[in-house]
Amino acid sequence: MSDSAAVEAAKHGERASQPLLQVRDLRVHFGARTALHDVTFDLFAGETLGLVGESGSGKSTLARAILRLVPAGGGSVLWRGRDLLSCDSGALRELRRELQIVFQDPLASLDPRMSVGESIAEPLRIFESRLTAAARGVRVAEMLRRVGLAADMMSRYPHEFSGGQCQRIGIARAMILRPKLLICDEPVSSLDVSIQGQIVNLLLDLQRDDATAMLFISHNLAVVRHLSHRILVMYSGTLVEIAARDALFSAPVHPYTRALLAAVPPLPAGRDPVSREPTQVEEIRRPVVGESAATTLPSGGCAFRDRCDYARTICETKVPLLENIAPGHWVACHRARELVS
Amino acid sequence: MLQTLRVENLNVNFTQRAAAIAAVRQVSLSVSPGECIGLVGESGSGKTQVFMAVMGLLAGNAVAEGSVRFGEEEILGLDRERLNRVRGSKLTMIFQDPMTTLTPHLKVGEQLAEVLVCHSGMSWNEARQSALRMLERVRVPEAPRRMSQYPHELSGGMRQRVMIGMSLLCEPALLIADEPTTALDVTVQAQIIELLRAVRAEAGMSLVLISHDLAVVAGLADRILVMYAGRIVENAAAAELFRQARHPYTAELLKCIPSLSGPRLERLPTLRGQPPRAGEELLGCAFAARCPRVAKRCRAERPLLQDGGNGAAVACHYPLP
Question: Which residue in A118, A275, A331, B69 could disulfide with A114, CB within 3.0 to 4.6 Å?
């Protein structure tokens, strides 16, 4: 790694250790449309990075581009120093065992004709092909137990399980190789609220036991708040804010982050027995107009400018770049410094 | 006082592979003029099917029994022609995904105008003008231009505004909104909640808001009904419900909603187990297997919805105080 990249990495994560994953200027085009604009961030070992944004903001595209499930149009994805985007298919295959993904729709991501045991054993058949069938069976039974399902469920088929159980199965399949990074793409969004907590807690337990790093993608800010160390906010294919969890929720800076937090419908007081001071978000609570337009990206300006109360002339002409406004806190807004004070 | 809507002892059964599956069991509820009720429950709780039965929109393999009175008229089991006089004009319903309810090959203006031509007998010219005024009323930006656009040319939030506008054209006495914001982004959801609040105040109509999200309902509803496994388990004034839920299911559900404020948690609160399977017949309370307050009686005897005064009711042998 070059010196300048190391310096930049240290700035982003404010850590001395080498990041596991370094995404630099990652860009994805779908036809004429740019879905991801020069996305840059680091992810450290054991860290949970929350990625929030609305539909069409590029969250899932980012996850898929990291894993080379969609082709990148530029930039680099360094996984422990090796570029995933430029390595050959053999090397990529070996590296992929360290990076796994859990998808939103648990039923759709399981093969309906494969028993649950076969689905969970699939990564072992590919990456640990010398294991005997009996040894695989032992590993699958152990993994089922870890995700809270009975070992004798391995001969059943996905349609026999509820949504929450299917998500446990998807997690078992992703975790059976003990990956170093687990990407979770809206893993609880299709589940009922009474089931969501079970799945989030399961992920936290597995992460602690295996020291797995996690990129947790969600549109649900409250879920992300409870499990992330740091948070990335995306808007229209661009990272607009990077901050440690507490900084992001108590003192968000980017007007879009503020709007996003303010839009979450509050539960009436009385539910939460803990009395508290109003947060800055509530003080600045105001509805934001319009919607993000994934198809008509403004060229040469800030993507949020048409919905932004703070937009100035410069926002029409110049793309704001991520700027360091406090230790570990990065904001892509021309008026970030004014908004902090 | 004559209720806008009164549902009594409603049962909805689906026939599947020659077996009957009960989706709605003994549901009774009423909506007063101008009132907003929120109907809350998780997937499969039967909340949508209650109002599909009210609207006469149940699937072909479903049968509804009981009584549904809209104003003075019994509308359950009405033939299509008589039902069509009521629904679409005085009784309207909007759904989660406006793309599936708007006609894809008709321009927005034509779809809205058609409602008025059919239900109010307006001329097309008058109807188009009323349609334009309605788009403005539901704050569709650049309304004149939208009139000649097709649904796919509009954003999700704008399509939901169009649907709300369409449902209001004939000045309904009751609007039923089934998960109207679930498919929308959170910033757009906030706009649609605000719009529903405004049009309800302007039109003085009754509103039923069906949602899995208590926080969405909280901002609008006067009264909240909670469903679990096909039955109403709690009915309370919204403020009262959030102050002190009495059914353990409601209380546990509220605890499970992760919060943006308050202390950060190392683990999220959970509700153990999962709801009974669709149609599963249980001797006692359907929530017994997951309930922190469960006692022997709960597994043997089903609790009835008991009136607790002030219009509140709870179906639990051991409700929270």
Answer: A118
The tens digit of pLDDT for each residue in A51-86 reads 999 888 999 999 999 999 999 999 999 999 999 999
Tell me the CB-side half-sphere exposure of residue A211, using CA atoms within 13 A: 3
Mean pLDDT of B28-51: 95
Which pLDDT score, from 0 to 100, does residue B262 have?
Answer: 78
% chain A with pLDDT above 90: 68
Residue A299's pLDDT is 65
Tokens describing residue B277: 């399977």
Instruction: Say if the Cβ atoms of B257 and A193 lie within 8 Å.
Output: yes
| Whole-Å CA distances, A247 to A280, B61, B232 | 11, 54, 42
* A130 touches B at CB < 8 Å: no
Report the distance separating Cα A245 and Cα A300, nearest Å: 30
Q: Report how far residue A195's alpha carbon sits from residue A221's, in angstroms, rounded to the nearest whole number.
A: 17
The confidence score (pLDDT) of residue A269 equals 61
Q: Do A200 and B262 touch (CB under 8 A)?
A: no
Q: Say which residue the tokens 């203006």 belong to.
A: B109
The answer to whether residue A250 neighbours chain B at the CB level (below 8 Å) is no
A326 pairs with which residues across the strands?
A329
Nearest residue in A to B267, CA atom: A201
Q: Which residues of A touch B263 (CB under 8 A)?
A: 274
Task: Enter the ipTM.
Answer: 0.83
Give the tokens for residue A62: 């980012």
> What tokens does B178 get?
């089934």
Q: Considering only alpha carbons, which residue of chain A is nearest residue B195?
A: A287
Q: How far is A270 from chain B (nearest CA, A)?
A: 5
Mean pLDDT of B228-236: 96
Which chain B residue has its CA at the smallest distance from A54's CA? B185
Rounded to the nearest angstrom, the minimum Cα separation between A41 and chain B is 24
Buried b (16+ CB within 10 A) or exposed e, B169-183: bbebbbbbbbbbbeb
pLDDT > 50? residue A10: no
Per-residue pLDDT at A122 exceeds 60:
yes
**pLDDT-based confidence at residue A162 (cuts at 50, 70, 90):** confident
Q: Say whether A265 and B256 touch across the interface (CB within 8 A).
A: no
CA A55 to chain B, closest CA, distance in angstroms equals 7
Confidence band, pLDDT 50/70/90 cuts, at residue B169: very high
Cβ atoms < 10 Å from Cβ of B151: 21
In this structure, how many other beta carbons lie within 10 angstroms of the beta carbon of residue B208?
25
The backbone region for A40, taken as left when phi is positive above 0, alpha when psi lies in -120 to 50, beta otherwise, is beta
Residues B92-142 have pLDDT tens digits of: 999 988 888 899 999 999 999 999 999 888 999 999 999 999 999 999 989
For chain A, how big is the Rg over CA atoms in Å? 21
Strand pairing category for B62-70 and B36-40: unpaired
**Contact between residue B181 and residue A291 where contact means Cβ atoms under 8 Å apart:** no
Query: Which amino acid appears at position B139 of this protein?
Result: R
Q: Is residue A261 within 8 angstroms of chain B, CB to CB?
A: yes
For the residues B269-280, what does the mean pLDDT come to? 84
Beta strand extents in A85-211 (DSSP E only) = 99-102, 181-185
Kindly determine whether residue B214 and residue A260, on different chains, have CB atoms separated by under 8 Å: no
Q: Closest approach of chain A CAs to the CA of B40, in angstroms?
A: 12
